[in-house]
From TrEMBL, chains A, B, C, D, E:
This is Magnesium transport protein CorA. The gene is corA. GO terms for molecular function: cobalt ion binding; cobalt ion transmembrane transporter activity; magnesium ion binding; magnesium ion transmembrane transporter activity. It is found in: Cell membrane; Membrane. It is a multi-pass membrane protein. One of its GO terms (cellular component) is plasma membrane. It catalyses: Mg(2+)(in) = Mg(2+)(out). Mediates influx of magnesium ions. Alternates between open and closed states. Activated by low cytoplasmic Mg(2+) levels. Inactive when cytoplasmic Mg(2+) levels are high. The chain crosses the membrane at residues 296-316, 328-348. Belongs to the CorA metal ion transporter (MIT) (TC 1.A.35) family. The lineage of its organism: Bacteria, Bacillati, Bacillota, Bacilli, Bacillales. It comes from Lottiidibacillus patelloidae. Residues 181-208 form a coiled coil. PANTHER family: CORA FAMILY METAL ION TRANSPORTER (EUROFUNG). SUPFAM superfamilies: CorA soluble domain-like (SSF143865), Magnesium transport protein CorA, transmembrane region (SSF144083). CDD domains: TmCorA-like_1.
Length: 354, 354, 354, 354, 354
C-alpha cells in the first residue's frame, strides 16, 4: 500500500477516507496503552489489539486508553467503529494538520488540541496533534509521536497524588488539557526570551543574517498564534457545553484553564509586536551605521578637497606666479592649509558630527 | 445579435435581462449532460434540447444536469422558465463575475461558487463561476468553460464508489461543494510555495523585476481572499438553512466543509502577510546592497584622498621646498603614505566595515 | 435676498431653516416635470407651479414628479407643505452635502442618495444629491443639476419597455435606485482603470508629479468610500423596512441592489489598497533610481581616485625619484593603471553592480 | 483656602469632593443669569445668590439658569443641594476635563458636553466644558469661562424668533445641544483648511519646522476625535432615553443632531488620514530633495574625476613622455576631454538625470 | 523547603498548588493587620496568627483584614480554609503575575487588581498585585510588598473623615478600588510627561540612545495597557454583578470608577500613539541630519572638483601651452575660478541648499 502524505491527494476523495498528512515518514503500528484506576486500584498495560481494552471499561473504575501513532489507519478505524465515532471525526483525528476544535455529541466530547514544543535541531517551534475523547468512564487520547507531557499525570495516578484517583474521568480530561496549556505558557515565555537575545545581538552588530533570524522567529510567532487562538475557543466551548459526563465541579477547573488561555493569547500578541519592534530596531541600526559611514566620508572629503585644490594651484606651471619665488610662499601656504583644517574641525564639532 | 460583454452596458437595463460578462469571446451553444442514477442504475447522455432532460427526472432516481457555457442565453432562459427560477437569479448565474452567494426558496437552493485554478499561460490564479442548484431529486450545475474538477465524482457515481449512489441528491450537492473547496486548499498551498520561491530569489539578488513579481502575486492573494471570504459565508448559510431537501445527515458533512473553509481563510490570510514580508525583505535587501556600495566608496575615497593631497603638496612648484632636495624626501613621503593607509585599514576593521 | 452658501452660516439657525449649501452659484427657478402613466396611458409635461401637479395624482395611475434645482427654496417649501414633509427633512433635501440616508414615516419613504459622475474638466469624481420620495401612487425626485441617468427609465416608461408601466410606483422607486447603483459600478471600475494607468506611468518614470496624481486620486477613492458605505446601509434599511407602499415582490428586487452594493463596497476597498500599493511603488522606483545614481558615482570615483593618486605620485617634484629617469617608467605606470582599472571592473561585475 | 488644580491631588479623596481641575488660574465668583420666558413673557436678570432664582421657577413659564465659572465651589455646592443633584455628578460638572457623558435619573437629565473653539493665541483647538441639566420647566447650564455660542439663542428667545418661546424647556435643551454640535462642523472644516494650507507649504519647501507643525495639528485632530466620539454616544443616549420631560417631538429634532454627529465623526476621521498623508508627503519631498542633491554631486564628480585624472597623467614628471613634446599634444588632450564631457552629458540625459 | 519561583515549575502540578511567582526573593512571614470600625468605634492591631482575627468579625462592626506578603504560603492556605475560599482562587491570589479578574460566588467577591507605581531605581513602571475580598461585614486585602496607597483611607477611618465609618464594608471595598484607579490616572499622566521630555531631547539631538529610551518607555506603555484593559472589565463586572453584600448605592459610586477607567484607557491609548510619533520623529531627525551632511559634502565637492580640474590642466607639462607663457595667464585663471565659485554659490542659494 502506497503511503499517502500530500494533502493534495485528498481532493474529491469520498468523505471519511482516513489519510495521515503529518511528518512521520514511515507507517508504524499504533502503540496502545491502557490505564485502569479507581480510588484504591491501579493497573497499567500495553496491549496488542484494541479489543483487549474493552473488557477493562467498567462503570466502577476509570479507564484511560492512549494510542500513539496516527499512521496505523486500520487500528484507528477499528477503534472508531467500536466506539461509534463518526468517520469524519476519525478523519480529523488522523489529519495531524487539523485546527484545534471541539466536537460534542450525546456520548462523546472530542477535543483536538496541539502540544507545542521547541525542536532544538530545527530551531523551530513545532506542534504535535493530540486528540482527547471524553466518554462515560473512559478517556481516549491519540498522539502523533511517542514521548509526551502526560508522564507527570501518569505518575500522579500511579502514586495517588493530587486527587485524580478520587475523581471521575472528566477530571482526568481536565488535567490533560491543563498540562497541554501549561506548556503553552512555558513555550511562549521561552520564545520571548529568544527574541530578547536577538535584540541584544542586533544592537551589537546589525548583520543581515539577523534579519533572516527575525523572519524565522516570526514563523514561530505566527504558528503559535494559529494554535492559541482556536485553542482559546475550544476551552471556552468546553466551559459552555452541557455534556452530561462533565461535572459542574470540573467546569470550575476548566475556567482556570480559560484564565491561562487569556494569558497565553496576550503573551503571543506581545511576541508579535516584539517582532515588529525587532525589525524596526534592525533598520534603525543599519541606518545608524550608514550615517556613520556618510559622516566619515564627508569629513575626509570636505577637509582634504579644498586643501588638494590649493596644492593644485601651486602645482600649475605658469611662468609668472610671484608666490612661487617668495621665500615665505611654501610655509605660508602650508600654514593656511592647517588653518583651514582647524576651521573644518571646529565646524564639524559644532554640528556634533563627531 | 451583438455580443454584450462590458458590464457598463448593464446600467438601467430592465431587471432580469440576462447578460454574460465573462471572458469567453464567442457565443457558443451550451452543452447539456444528464446523469441519471439510483442504487442500481446509471445512465449518462449528452442532449440537444433541455426538454429531453425532464422526462429523466423521476422520484425513484437522482438526476444531475450539467450545463457548460454561459453565453447561450436562450437555452438558459428556457431552463429557468421550466424550473421556475426567478429571472434575477438567472441573471446572477450568467453574470460570471458575481460574488459567491446562496439563495434559498421553498423549491430550490442555489449556490453560486467559484472554482479556483492556476493558469500556467497567464501565470495567474483565475476562477470559473459554477452555479449549483439543488432541488427535489435533481441537481443542476452551470459552468462557464469545459473541463472541471467534477470528473472524479462522475467516476465514483459510474463505478458506484464512495456511496453517492446510495444517497440522495443532497449528498451529491455536498460532494460537488466539497470538491470545489478541496481545490481551494491545494491552490492556496501552491500559492504559498510560489511566494517562498520568490523569497529565495530576492535573497539571492534583489532585482526590481522581483518587486513587480511580488505585486503580481499580490493580485492572486487579493483575488483569492475575495472568493474565500464570501464562500465561507455561503457554506455557513447552507449549514444554517432549513431547506427541506437537505437532510440533517448531509448537514453534518457540510460542517466538515466549514472546517476546511476556516483553514483556507487562515491560509489566505497567511499569504497576505507573506506578501507584506516579501516587500519588506526586498527593501531590506536593496538597502543592504546600497550600504555595501557606500562602504566601498567611502573606503576608497577616505584612503586615497589624503594620500593624493600629500602627493599634491610635493607637486607644488615653490622654489624653496627643502624636502624636495633631501635625499630621503621621496622614500620618507612614500613610507608616510603607506603608514596612513595602514592606519585607515585598522580603523575600518575596528568599525567592522569589511 | 443674499444667497447663503457657506455651511458656517447655519450655526444656531432655528431648525428647519432651508439652506442650499452646494456648488450651484446662482439662484435658479426649479424645473418641475410630471409624468403620469398607467398600463395603457402615458403623459409627460413641464409645469410652472407645483399646484398643477396634484390634480394629476390619482389612485388609478402612477405619478412621477421630478424637481431639478435645489436653490429655489420657496418652491421646495411649498411642495413640502402640500405633501406634509417635515421641515427637517426638507432641510436635508436641499442640503446637498448631506450623507445618504433613509427616513420612513407612515406616508413617505425618503431616500437621500448620491449620483456619482466623473467630471472631465476637474479630473475628479463628483456627486450630485438626489432625493427620492416614495408615497402612495407617487414618486417625487429632487435633483441638484439638470441632466441625469434617469433618461433611460423615462424612455422605458414612454415606450412601455421592461414592465415599469405594469407595476406600481414602488417598482419605479426600485428602478431609480438601481440606476443610481449601476452607475457606481461603472465609476468604480473606471477609477480602477485610471489607477492602473498611473501604475504604468510610475514604472516608466517616477516623477514627483505622479505622487501628486496619486494623492489626487486618493481623494476620489475616499470620496467614493464615503458615499458607498452609507448607501449600502440605506439599501439594507429599505430591504428591512415595512413601509406599506413597498411590496414584497419589489423587495426581492431591492435585494438584487444589495448584492450590487456589496460588490461596489469591495471594489471601493480594492481601490483603497491600490492607492497604498501605488505609493509604495513610487517610493520603490525612486529608491531604485537613487541606487542607480549611487552605483555610477561609486564606480567612477572608485576607479579613478587610485589612478589619480598614482599620477599625483609621479607629478611630485622630488629631485631623487629614480622611476622618472627610467626609460620604461612611463609605460610601466600606464600599464599598471590599466591593470588596476581592469581589476576594478572584475570586482564590480562580481558584485553585480552593472 | 489653597486653590487645588492638579488632578494628582484627587487620589484617595472622599467621593463627591468638588475639585476644579481646569485652566482658570484664579478663583472667581460664579456669575448667575436667569431667563424666564413663556409664549408672551420674557424676563432676564443677573442675580447674586442662587436662592433668588427658585422663586422664578413656576410651571407656567420656562426658566433657563446659566452659571459661568466653575471655580466657585461653594455656590455650585449650594445649587446642587437645592436641586438634589448627587455630589458625584457635581464633582463631574466642576471637573472640567471630564469626558462628555449623559446621566439620567427620574428628575434630571445631565449632559456634560464640550464646546470646541480655536484659540488664535495658542494656535490650537481648545474646548470648554458645558454641563446642561434638563428638569421640569427648567434648564441649567454650567460654563467654565464667560463668552459662549448661546447668544444667538438668547436673542431668538428675546425677540421671539424660531419658535423657542412656544415650546417647552426640552426644546431649549435641544437648541443648546444643536448650537454646540453646529460649532463642531465649523471647527472641523476649518481644521481641514489649515491642513490643506500646510500641504501647500510642504510642497513648496519641506522645512523641518513644517514637520513640527504637522505634529502640532495632529494634537488638534486627536483632541477633536476624543470629544467627538463620546459626544456621538451622548446624543444617541438622549435619543434612546425615556426621560419624561423630553417629548417625542423634540426627539425627532435630536435625531437631526445625530445626523450632524455622524457627519462630524467622519470629517474628524478624514483629518486623521490627512495627517498621515501630510507626513508621507513631507518625507517624500525631503527624499526628493535628497535625490536632487545626489544627482548634482554625481554629475559633477562623474564628469570631472576622469578629466582630472587625464590632467594628472600629463602632469607627471617622467623624462620620456613623447606626447609632451608633440606640437598637437595639448590641443589633442583638451579635445579629448571635451569629447568625454559630451559623452557624459549624453549618458545623463538618457538616464533622465536632468 | 525549596522556594519555587519559576512559572515553568507549575506545569502538570495538581490544581490548587499555591506557588508564588513574583519578584520577592526571600520567603517572609505574612504581616496581618486588622482594623475594626463602626460608627463610633475604631480599633487597629497587628496580629500573629490569623485565628485571632475571627473573633473580631461581628455583625455590628466592619472588619478590614490586610495581609502583606504572598510568599507565606502556609498562612494564606490557613486563611483560605477558614474563609472557605476555593484553592484555585488562592492560587490566583499568590500568583502575583495574574491578570486582573473578578470572581464572584454567593459569599465572596474577589477582585484581583494591580497597583501601578513608578520605580525610580529601575526607571520603569511596575505593578503590585492586590487582591481584595468583599464578604459580609469583612474586607480582606492581600498585598505583595509593604507600603501602599491605602494609608489615606486608613487615616480617614481613624479620624472618621469622608463617611467611611458610617457605611458598610462595600463602601470600603469601593474606596480601596477607587484609590487604586486614582493612581492609574496619575501614573499615566506622568508617563505622558516623560514621553514629552523625550520628544524635546530628540528634537535637540537625535542620538541612538534615545531610540533605546523610546523602546524602554514602550515597555511601560504596553505594560500599562495590559493592566488597564482587564481592570476596566473588572470594574464593569462589579457594576453588573448582583452580589448581595454590594448595595445599589455603592454601585452608583462604582459607576464613577468606570468613568475613570474609560479616561485611563483613552490616555493609555494616547501614550501608545505618542510612542509611534516619537519613533517617527527620531527617524525624521536622523534623516534630516543625514540630509545636512549630504548637502555639505555636495557643496564642497561640487565647488572644488571643477576648480581642481582647472588647476590640473595648468599643471600639465606640455611644452607648447601658450597660456603658461602669457603675462595674464595666472591672474586670468584665478579670476575664472572665483567666477565659477560665485556661480556655484548662486546656484545653491537658488536650490535653497543653505
Ligand atoms: Mg473529501
Ligand atoms: Mg504537525
Ligand atoms: Mg506524544
Ligand atoms: Mg494550568
Ligand atoms: Mg522576559
Ligand atoms: Mg487560576
Ligand atoms: Mg439592472
Ligand atoms: Mg471569471
Ligand atoms: Mg468547467
Ligand atoms: Mg473536503
Ligand atoms: Mg510550505
Ligand atoms: Mg473534517
Ligand atoms: Mg440648526
Ligand atoms: Mg455635491
Ligand atoms: Mg441631475
Ligand atoms: Mg442593478
Ligand atoms: Mg481591471
Ligand atoms: Mg443579481
Ligand atoms: Mg475619589
Ligand atoms: Mg479644558
Ligand atoms: Mg462660556
Ligand atoms: Mg444643527
Ligand atoms: Mg476642503
Ligand atoms: Mg480625528
Ligand atoms: Mg437634518
Ligand atoms: Mg496546574
Ligand atoms: Mg509584579
Ligand atoms: Mg503594598
Ligand atoms: Mg476616583
Ligand atoms: Mg501633558
Ligand atoms: Mg465622576
Amino acid at each position: 500500500m502506497k503511503f499517502i502524505r500530500k494533502r493534495d491527494k485528498k481532493q474529491s476523495l469520498p468523505p471519511g477516507t482516513l489519510t495521515y498528512v503529518g511528518e512521520e515518514q514511515q507507517r508504524k503500528d499504533a502503540v496502545i496503552t491502557v490505564i485502569n484506576y479507581g480510588k484504591n486500584t491501579y493497573e497499567e498495560k500495553t496491549i496488542e489489539t484494541i479489543e483487549e481494552s474493552y473488557s477493562a471499561i467498567t462503570s466502577d473504575r476509570q479507564t484511560w486508553i492512549n494510542i500513539t501513532g496516527l499512521t496505523d489507519i486500520k487500528t484507528i478505524e477499528k477503534i472508531g467503529k467500536e466506539l461509534e465515532i463518526h468517520p469524519l471525526l476519525l478523519e480529523d483525528i488522523v489529519n495531524s494538520e487539523h485546527r484545534p476544535k471541539l466536537e460534542v455529541n450525546e456520548n462523546h466530547m472530542l477535543a483536538i488540541v496541539k502540544r507545542l514544543y521547541y525542536s532544538e535541531e530545527e530551531e523551530e517551534l513545532q506542534n504535535e496533534q493530540i486528540s482527547i475523547i471524553l466518554s462515560k468512564n473512559v478517556v481516549i487520547t491519540f498522539q502523533e509521536f511517542a514521548g509526551d507531557d502526560f508522564e507527570t499525570i501518569r505518575k500522579q495516578i500511579r502514586h495517588s497524588v493530587g486527587g485524580i484517583r478520587a475523581c471521575g474521568t472528566d477530571f482526568l480530561f481536565y488535567r490533560l488539557l491543563d498540562s497541554v496549556v501549561d506548556r503553552y505558557i512555558i513555550e511562549v515565555e521561552e520564545l520571548e526570551d529568544r527574541l530578547e537575545e536577538l535584540e541584544e545581538k542586533i544592537i551589537d552588530n546589525p548583520e543581515q543574517s539577523l534579519l533572516h533570524a527575525i523572519y524565522q522567529k516570526k514563523h514561530d510567532v505566527v504558528g503559535c498564534k494559529k494554535i492559541v487562538t482556536p485553542m482559546k475557543e475550544v476551552i471556552s466551548q468546553i466551559q459552555k457545553s452541557d455534556f452530561p459526563y462533565l461535572t459542574e465541579q470540573t467546569k470550575f477547573f476548566i475556567k482556570d484553564i480559560q484564565d491561562h488561555m487569556i494569558d497565553v493569547t496576550e503573551k503571543a500578541e506581545t511576541t508579535r509586536s516584539m517582532i515588529t519592534g525587532l525589525i524596526e530596531l534592525y533598520y534603525s541600526s543599519v541606518s545608524y551605521k550608514m550615517n556613520e559611514i556618510m559622516k566619515v566620508l564627508t569629513i575626509v572629503s570636505t577637509t582634504f578637497i579644498p586643501l588638494t585644490f590649493i596644492a593644485g594651484i601651486y602645482g600649475m606651471n605658469f611662468h609668472r606666479m610671484p608666490e612661487l619665488h617668495s621665500k615665505w610662499g611654501y610655509p605660508a601656504v602650508m600654514g593656511g592649509m592647517v588653518l583651514i583644517a582647524i576651521g573644518m574641525f571646529i565646524y564639524f564639532r559644532k554640528k556634533k558630527w563627531f
